[in-house]
């Protein structure tokens, strides 16, 4: 019998966006853009998801350049992949504040093995986007940043939420990272497609680290209360 790890790895391997994007927007697919993300993410899922214990989905926005854009694992930057997950990584060592927050929360929850036995984190849009910024550097771009991009990737988003649910995750509750545009989009999408019975939104880790770092522990407590409410023995 296959496991969550087998199904997640297959999902990652097939991820490809073939539609058109607005001018100036580029797709970011870590599983095809570099030689290490697929390998390290396969090791990660093999380590923490090689079973069929029931789990709930947590959906962020879309991959960022310094986290899952490097490792292929949502909210897990290379630093955390090495130091927390104890998984070898040969690519560039980057730091993502969101990843720092998530792994502090995971430690408070009871550790990596306990958390990942209960939850699977990915994104509303499973591939990321970049644009060239004012200074000529590549910067992250979100699926909701322009109506044109949202419209272009809408069918891709719907298709891949269906595929992620089909991996076998619980659909009574879905957690959403982001209480602004990501929450609004996911709630509207859920009203249309009835993917989940309930969507529970939590402030995005990046927002917390950037604007609310002094009260980070309060947000961690809020996360734990929400997550513990659906823990499956």
Automatic annotation (TrEMBL):
Domain Uracil-DNA glycosylase-like: 48-227
Superkingdom of origin organism: Bacteria
InterPro entries the record matches: Phe_SMUG2-like, Uracil-DNA_glycosylase-like, Uracil-DNA_glycosylase-like_sf
SUPFAM superfamilies found in the cross-reference section: Uracil-DNA glycosylase-like
Protein name: SMUG2 DNA glycosylase family protein
Organism this protein belongs to: Mucilaginibacter ginsenosidivorax
